[in-house]
Amino acid sequence: MKRLLTSWLDPIKRGWMLYHLSDERFRFMYDPPPEDEWVSLDCETTGLNVQRDEIISVGAVRIKGNRILASERLELLIKPSRGISAESVRVHRLREVDVAQGMDPEDAMEVLMRFIGSRPLVGYYLEFDLAMINRVIWPMLGVYLPNQRFEVSSMFYEYKNRQLPAQERGGNIDLRFSTLMADLGLPEREAHDAINDAVMAAMAFVKLRRLLGDG
Fold first, then answer.
1. Would you place residue 179 in the very low, low, confident or very high pLDDT band (cuts 50, 70, 90)?
2. Of 24, 42, 150, 185, which residue is 20 to 30 A from 116 by alpha carbon distance?
3. How confident is the model at residue 169 (pLDDT cuts 50, 70, 90)?
4. Distance (Å, rounded) from C-alpha 134 to C-alpha 69?
5. Do 143 and 15 meet the contact criterion of CB atoms below 8 Å apart?
6. How far apart are CA 82 and CA 46, in angstroms?
7. DSSP, residue by residue, 170-195
8. Can you give the pTM of this predicted structure?
9. Where does the pLDDT of residue 190 fall: very low under 50, low under 70, confident under 90, or very high at 90 and above?
10. Which domain, by its residues, includes 133?
11. Cα separation, 14 vs 125, whole angstroms
């Protein structure tokens, strides 16, 4: 498992993406990232189908060094184009009335991109969240988010795998978020709330960097 999902852009790929960027206002996304800074990100959605479902809330918080900057966080509600199923409401507790005055998806993504800048992204099963985000951003910009990405579950897998005898490495490890947080001795907030999940992923990232010798 690779905890780093993507590395910073090489010059050729950066040039290709800038060439295809359809809105010059977002060139800053391709600047070198600030040193020792990240953004932890989480989305709540109407379901788990990347092609059909929609984002209804986004939570993000900045990390600098080993500090989570709780005062530098972002919480957005987004109005979906279709109704929210009862099953989804049971997961994230967001009803249609709660997001009725939410932002349009494109406006929300613009705010999110300005909050992130070129900082690397952190999250728990981040691939899904970014697939949902990129589905909105692609029509806006003609490219996907270029940011470097760190997957907390992969970092946890690496940490636990290192503790095993050589002959037992590479096997199954419980990667559930509650298991991860308990094993790391970190406090849990109420799950399936975008900002809570972003803060918990940030806490796990900071601790795992230290345990893995990265920070």
1. very high
2. 185
3. confident
4. 25
5. no
6. 9
7. TS-----HHHHHHHTT-PPPPSS-HH
8. 0.90
9. confident
10. 4-211
11. 25
Q: What are phi and psi of 59, to 5 degrees?
A: -125, 135
- Match 């978020």 to its residue by tokens: 177
pLDDT of residue 6: 53
**What are the pLDDT digits (tens) for 104-149?**
999 999 999 999 999 999 999 999 999 999 999 999 999 999 999 9
For 77, phi then psi, to 5°, come to -105, 140
CATH number of domain containing 153: 3.30.420.10
Token couple for 57: 């809330």
Going from the C-alpha of 143 to that of each of 8, 24, 104, the distances in angstroms are: 15, 12, 20
Report the domain count for the chain. Answer: 1
Cβ within 8 Å of residue 15, ≥6 positions away: none
d(CA 122, CA 202): 7
**Residue type, position 189, single letter:** R
Sign of the four-CA dihedral 117, 104, 55, 191? positive
Give the three-state DSSP class for 131. helix
Residues 6+ apart with CB under 8 A from 12: none
- The Cα 213–Cα 193 span in angstroms is 30
Q: Tell me the two tokens of residue 56.
A: 């209804």
